[in-house]
Amino acid sequence: MTVCICFHQPTSENMDQENQTMVTEFYFSDFPQFENRGLLFFIPLLFIYVFIIVGNFMIFFAVRLDTRLHNPMYNFISVFSFLEIWYTTVTIPKMLSNLVSEQKTISFIGCLLQMYFFHSLGVTEGLILTVMAIDRYVAICNPLRYAVIMTPQLCIQLSTGSCIFGFLMLLPETVWISTLPFCGPNQIHQLFCDFEPVLHLACTDTSMILVEDVIHAISILTSVSIITLSYLRIITVILKIPSGESRQKAFSTCLAHITIFLLFFGSVTLMYLHFSVTFPPLLDKAIALMFAVLAPLFNPVIYSLRNRDMKDAIKKILCSQKMFNVPGS
Fold first, then answer.
1. Residue 216: is it exposed, middle or buried by C-beta count within 10 angstroms (0-12/13-18/19+)?
2. How much is the pTM?
3. DSSP string, 232-253
4. pLDDT (tens digit, 9 = 90+) per residue, 65-112?
5. Is the C or the N end of the chain the one with fewer CB within 10 Å?
6. Could you say which DSSP state residue 68 is in?
């Protein structure tokens, strides 16, 4: 916890208030100037962002338009891809702007909204990954009852419930932060607005945030435990399959999910569950970059290039005359 000094005058409460300058915007101090390596970072980051958006949109539309992919597993993948589009849009465009702009600032309200949507979308993605693990568990460990258990109605309820819970969970914390006084330094030492760097700038006691941190930790650990136990059980069942071809197909299906799980929750753990361990500033920003940029980059790669059904559906969309009507053809 960091408490900033707000230049209080001990002689008079009125003088205290007069000497406090309330912060209306924050400054990202760790971005290089455009002339000083800013362009060097801007070009690859822009390429990554475009790839993430296009790749995830292709996955989303491939699942929606190809009837062969109308099953729970691919529906959850499409929801996850749709969330990834907005998850990266919350932070990366502002990073790109900071790399080429002299005014590397964000308004107080803008900072709150960035924190809220970034973490709400992140929590929702974690819940969707948990639901995907449960779906694979039912499909492989209880295949005869899979169609009865994972009905379209249940899939919609699980996806909708994940979104509602994810956006409600972060609301109290964001509202509480909006009531805090910020009257001292306004430099954020991070690539985007995050809870800890912003709370370090508050001119008041922020120890109450520990309660929310515990809730977040329990939420993350619960999801990790459910997913880990599900895939341990899945792997045990797969190893007992007598047919080598069936065993390989089952492993191939689950490998993409496990890879995304490790990328997502691995970066989450490094970012938010290091507790009292303090990382060097450069490593801290590298972890934030992996969490906000690099992990989403691999989602379209893993779910398209490693999946034959998905590749066929994407090729079908790209070559479809319905989407690319050529006059006179």
1. buried
2. 0.85
3. HHHHHHHHT-S-HHHHHHHHHH
4. 888 889 998 999 999 999 999 999 999 999 999 888 888 899 999 999
5. C
6. G
